[in-house]
Design brief:
It comes from Rhodobium orientis. By secondary structure, the protein is α+β, with helices and mostly antiparallel strands. The chain is built from 14 helices and eleven strands.
């Protein structure tokens, strides 16, 4: 994951860089005594119950202090949520898809695909996930393992358990981090994370490490920090465990006739791809859908409404969203994976979209909620529920639906 993202779901991720104004932090050391009490009263008993040895607890927790420089902290015991900066500019999807950015990633990725061919062959055989998908996630999460991941992971998750958002969530992550150290997979000084607590090259939270990390190089350790085979296999194992369907792609760029409303987007509104074809949806460049796909479900995906490329996504697209719940993230991974074979961009254009602020988007969402529309939460971000509700509202007002701000 990029350094500006924190994952709070299965593995992660809410974009907080432009969103969170960290609450004022106490002076360094002011909460050290309370932090020590928190560790002794809440973390140590839970870690012992989870099987962490007394030696590990003594070694790793002695002298541990909270890192009050982390963004998004609230205060011990949950002193109220951090403020959201709704004056921040709302970012349209097009910003994520610069051709120059993809070309650089493709060049490096092709070289690494050749270097790790034997490993990737074995990963595909064992987990059924294509190498290009695994490689694209590796690129997106840590720049193929080259990104700086500077934080002391145990200190990060323990601090968030003590004085961050979702404290109960991070208590579990703290216990899991101690379990990783107790199992001997990594030494503390090497167990680095992002400021959100995501570990190593695949950017797993500690609980995800325990469930999905794989020792693929056979050295007896699940080293997602320093071992490319372990990192690649762990990504594939995560996707397999979350339902990756072997043999299916993630999705296909399409043209959508005006008669098909963009308000039909979403994972709950799928239908066999053959039915989309009968309604006039076509793959770009005159290609046909693979014959085996026609009877399988497909889902309309229009991340910028009528102002950008359109896609028929498969179930595997939503497996990518289990890694990070953003539509744009999953589309980035799928598109990069496609470009390893043929480095060309989307056929459809990202048309200019008026810029605004998250606050104005949120105000619109709140007014739509009052009118009975499901926008997926008034957070100032435009997910598929907001997009399709915009389309319905536009239709109700006699306008051609664009499923985007107008």
């Amino acid at each position: 994951m990029t350094t500006c993202l924190v994952r709070f779901r299965a593995i992660g991720a809410a974009a907080l860089c432009a969103a969170v104004l960290a609450a004022p932090h106490p002076a360094d050391g002011a909460d050290d005594a309370r932090f020590r009490q928190f560790l002794d009263r809440e973390i140590v008993p839970a870690a012992r119950a989870a099987g962490v040895s007394a030696g590990t607890l003594t070694r790793e927790l002695s002298g541990l202090t909270p890192d009050t420089s982390l963004p998004g902290l609230t205060g011990p015991g949950g002193g109220g949520p951090p403020k959201i900066n709704y004056q921040a500019e709302f970012r349209a999807p097009a910003r994520y898809f610069s051709d120059n950015r993809f070309t650089a990633l493709v060049r490096t990725g092709r070289s690494l695909m050749a270097r790790h061919k034997r490993t990737l062959d074995a990963v595909e055989r064992r987990f059924g996930v294509p190498r290009r998908i695994v490689l694209a996630i590796w690129a997106r999460e840590s720049g193929y393992g080259s990104a700086s991941i500077p934080k002391d992971a145990l200190r990060v998750v323990a601090t968030r358990a003590f004085m961050g958002q979702r404290q109960d969530f991070f208590k579990k992550e703290t216990i899991a981090a101690l379990k990783i150290l107790d199992d001997g997979h990594i030494r503390r000084r090497e167990m680095k994370s992002s400021w959100g607590g995501a570990l190593g090259q695949p950017q797993f939270l500690p609980t995800s490490f325990l469930r999905y990390a794989v020792d693929f190089d056979g050295d007896g350790r699940r080293d997602i920090w320093g071992s490319a085979p372990d990192a690649l296999a762990s990504i594939a194992n995560y996707l397999k465990a979350h339902g990756w369907v072997p043999g299916r792609d993630w999705g296909y760029e399409v043209t959508v006739p005006a008669g098909i409303s963009c308000s039909r987007e979403g994972p709950d509104r799928g239908q066999p791809i053959a039915k989309w074809v009968r309604e006039g949806v076509r793959r770009v460049k005159g290609r046909d859908f693979p014959a085996f796909e026609l009877k399988l479900p497909g889902y309309l995906l229009m991340p910028a409404g009528r102002f950008g490329p359109a896609f028929i996504a498969t179930d595997n697209f939503f497996v990518l969203k289990e890694y990070n719940e953003s539509d744009v993230y999953a589309l980035f991974v799928g598109h990069l994976a496609d470009r390893y074979g043929n480095d060309v961009g989307f056929v459809g254009d990202w048309r200019p979209i008026r810029t605004t602020t998250r606050g104005k988007v949120r105000q619109l969402q709140l007014s739509m909620e009052k009118a009975g529309h499901d926008v997926g939460g008034a957070d100032g971000l435009i997910g598929f529920k907001t997009r399709r509700s915009l389309g319905v509202l536009q239709q109700q007002r006699g306008k051609a639906p664009t499923c985007w701000l107008d």
